[in-house]
């Protein structure tokens, strides 16, 4: 067996030629039937990968743009909502101030009308009192004139009259 292994390792020109011819034929067959389809499949796959990568980059760019637009719209919405809240607070404060002013005016009017009513009632009471005092003075004068009495008697009548006044 060692002899056979030595023959295999020894270069034989005929074997080398046949191996070369077989290898060349195999290369021609592979080139004609396998190499073209394999290369075209690899080229197609490479183009598909490039397209997928470019579409992914486009989608990523669009997503970033959408995110940027969304952030901008969110900031604008926040600014708008803050403006609306500010306007609502200002309007509420204005309405509150108006209501307070109206209430003050109404209170002042009520106070003025109450004061005027008090003055009228006071004037009416004073007029009534004056009339009654005048009537009483006239009645007292009538009594004094009717009774033409001496000074002690007149003093007693006036004291009685004054006592009657305090009861009324």
Number of domains: 1
Return the structural class: mainly alpha
Please report the total strand number as a whole number: 0
Chain-averaged pLDDT: 85
Radius of gyration: 64 Å
Low-confidence stretches are none
Fraction of residues in H or I helices: over 70%
Estimate the global geometry from the Cα principal axes.
rod-shaped
Q: How far apart are the termini?
A: 166 Å
Number of helices: 3
Regarding quaternary structure, what we see is: single chain
Q: Helices and strands, in N-to-C order?
A: HHH
In percent, how much strand structure appears in the residues? under 5%
Largest sheet: none
Polypeptide structure, described:
With 168 residues, the chain is mainly alpha-helical. It has one domain (16-167). Helix content is 95%, strand content 0%. It has helices at 2-9, 13-146, 151-167. Helix 2 packs antiparallel against helix 3 (151-167). The longest helix is centred in the middle third of the chain and has 134 residues, at 13-146. The model has no long low-confidence stretch (mean pLDDT 85).
Keyword list:
mainly alpha, 0% strand, 95% helix, 168 residues, rod-shaped
Task: Draw up the topology in text.
Layout: H1 2-9, H2 13-146, H3 151-167
Give a short summary of the structure:
This protein has three helices and no strands. With 168 residues, the protein is mainly α. It has one domain.
